[in-house]
């Protein structure tokens, strides 16, 4: 959560924006509570900064810090008094969002109170597990093809590695070896580190990127800014291609897509666990037990008569099956049904 510019625990500093400044003056004063006491704007600013520092010391992921800060902003904008849990409950109850989103709001505010040594009677919201809308590979490739260079690179990286958005955003040029074609992922959220072999396409995309961001790959100051840019481009591409399903694709869906494809290919939970970096197999099961895969699997079959042909097929994800009349046969599971 710290950039290379010193501690983020200072007034006016945004610990997740790599040097950008939060407009803390724009945060509204807390409204008068039921007991008639008021809290000054300076007190609100101080608690927000203290909240950042608390999460930093507790080792929360940078993306979690961003989300929780945005939740505090939202509560303030909607008139919640952060010193009055009943006021916060009222704002949450009136929010027109799903129970999963409300559950996240409750978690963020609970942590805000915990920082101050306080507790509250939490409202009963729980996330509802849903089958993720897994897109087709063609839909993902359409988004990549229609996006700007940096957004396209970010999407391609998520597609190939299944990394979390924060893991991909925190990558440095020192994590990538274009000579050997290896990328090293530094984990978030207690996961394991991973290393991946880059595809020729991803290597070419990386090679054309300028090294102008102090060792960082991305020109964006924060993952929030990058994601906002992606949403604008996604909307434009979906309209141009007349494919509203593209609007369902977000960064974390590509992690689900990668897990789905690899599990469909291998039926190996331990392999998928290692690929995603999970320490607990139960976490991996969330990515595989919810999959609505067809009973009758369909394959694309290819024949190879030379070593060069076989090499190309293996690089494209085909698996060797057998040999007939001195011709080697390969197959790859069709994925076009996913997300259809």
CATH architecture of the largest domain: Orthogonal Bundle
- Describe the biggest sheet? 3 strands, antiparallel
User: Could you give the distance between the termini?
Assistant: 38 Å
Task: Supply the number of structural domains.
Answer: 3
Number of helices: 13
Strand-helix topology:
Elements: H1 41-58, H2 62-77, H3 85-94, H4 99-115, H5 137-146, H6 149-161, H7 165-169, E1 176-177, E2 182-185, E3 194-197, H8 200-207, H9 223-241, H10 251-266, H11 269-276, H12 281-288, E4 299-304, H13 307-315, E5 319-324, E6 327-333
Antiparallel strand pairs: 1-2, 2-3, 4-6, 5-6
Helix pairs in contact: 1-2, 2-4, 5-6, 6-10, 10-11, 11-12
């Amino acid at each position: 959560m710290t950039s290379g510019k010193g501690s983020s625990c200072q007034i006016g500093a945004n610990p997740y924006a790599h040097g950008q400044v939060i407009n803390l003056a724009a945060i509204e004063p807390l409204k008068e509570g039921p007991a008639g006491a008021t809290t000054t704007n300076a007190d609100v600013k101080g608690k927000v900064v203290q909240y950042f520092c608390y999460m930093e010391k507790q080792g929360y992921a940078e993306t979690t810090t961003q989300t929780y800060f945005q939740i505090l902003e939202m509560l303030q904008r909607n008139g919640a008094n952060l010193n009055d849990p009943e006021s916060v409950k009222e704002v949450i109850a009136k929010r027109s969002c799903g129970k999963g989103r409300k559950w996240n709001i409750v978690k963020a505010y609970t942590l805000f109170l915990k920082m101050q040594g306080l507790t509250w009677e939490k409202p009963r919201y729980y996330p509802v597990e849903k089958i993720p809308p897994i897109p087709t590979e063609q839909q993902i490739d359409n988004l990549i093809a229609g996006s700007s260079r940096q957004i396209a690179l970010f999407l391609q990286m998520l597609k190939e590695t299944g990394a979390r958005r924060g893991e991909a955003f925190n990558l440095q040029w020192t994590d990538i070896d274009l000579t050997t074609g290896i990328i090293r992922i530094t984990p978030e959220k207690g996961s394991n580190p991973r290393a991946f072999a880059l595809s020729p396409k991803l290597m070419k995309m990386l090679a054309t990127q300028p090294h102008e961001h102090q060792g960082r790959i991305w020109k964006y100051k924060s993952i929030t800014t990058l994601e906002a840019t992606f949403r604008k481009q996604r909307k434009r591409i979906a309209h141009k291609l007349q494919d509203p399903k593209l609007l369902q694709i977000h960064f974390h869906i590509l992690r689900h897509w990668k897990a789905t494809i690899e599990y469909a290919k291998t039926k190996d939970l331990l392999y998928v666990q290692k690929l995603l970096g999970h320490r607990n197999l139960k976490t991996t099961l969330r990515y595989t037990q919810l999959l609505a895969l067809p009973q009758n699997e369909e394959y694309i079959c290819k024949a190879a008569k030379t070593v060069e042909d076989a090499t190309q097929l293996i690089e494209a994800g085909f698996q060797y099956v057998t040999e007939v009349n001195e011709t080697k046969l390969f197959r790859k599971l069709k994925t076009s049904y996913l997300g259809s």
